Amino acid sequence: MPLGLGKEVLQYMKEIAHAAIDAGADIVVGHGPHYALPAEVYRGRPIFYGLGSFSFHTGHGGRRHDNWVGMMVRVAAGKAGVKAATFQFVRRNDRNETFLCRLADEADALAEVIEASARFGTKLTPENDEVRVGL
């Protein structure tokens, strides 16, 4: 199922993320929309504009939504900051339990995130079931 990445990162989101890194943040993780947004590397530090729907597949009034995909980020960091960043797609089952997805099952989602992130000059590399962000 497509991620809905036709929605772009709004200018204010980019400004806030860049300002956070300019102020010393090592990583920025945005959230809000229930679809995954692109990743960007700014000054060597990762920005994830939106992780999509990670934990819930129900909305207001308990209404069930479509089978949204989310992203779980893994970061390796040390005293010098972020050394590596990857993400893996997640979905929910009928009991609303979040589970990790096989990348082979998420080809459309992967293609959309890679394309949208490339617009920021960010290279994403699939590795097994994770996607590495080029820092």
Could you tell me the strand content as a percent range?
Answer: 25-35%
Provide the gyration radius in Å.
15 Å
Record field, number of beta strands: 8
Number of domains: 1
Fold and architecture overview:
With 135 residues, the protein is α+β, with helices and mostly antiparallel strands. It has one domain. Helices cover 18% and strands 31% of the residues. It is built from 2 helices and 8 strands; from the N terminus they run αββββββαββ. Strands 4, 5, 6, 7 and 8 form a 5-stranded antiparallel β-sheet that branches. A 3-stranded mixed β-sheet has the order 1-3-2. It is globular and about 40 Å long. 28% of the residues are buried.
Indicate the topology:
Layout lengths: L10 H12 L5 E2 L9 E4 L2 E4 L21 E9 L2 E12 L5 E3 L6 H12 L5 E4 L2 E4 L2
What structural keywords apply?
135 residues; alpha+beta; five-stranded antiparallel sheet; three-stranded mixed sheet
Task: Describe, in short, the structure shown.
With 135 residues, the protein is of the alpha+beta class. It contains two helices and eight strands; from the N terminus they run H-E-E-E-E-E-E-H-E-E. Strands 4, 5, 6, 7 and 8 form a five-stranded antiparallel beta sheet that branches. Strands 1-3-2 form a three-stranded mixed beta sheet.
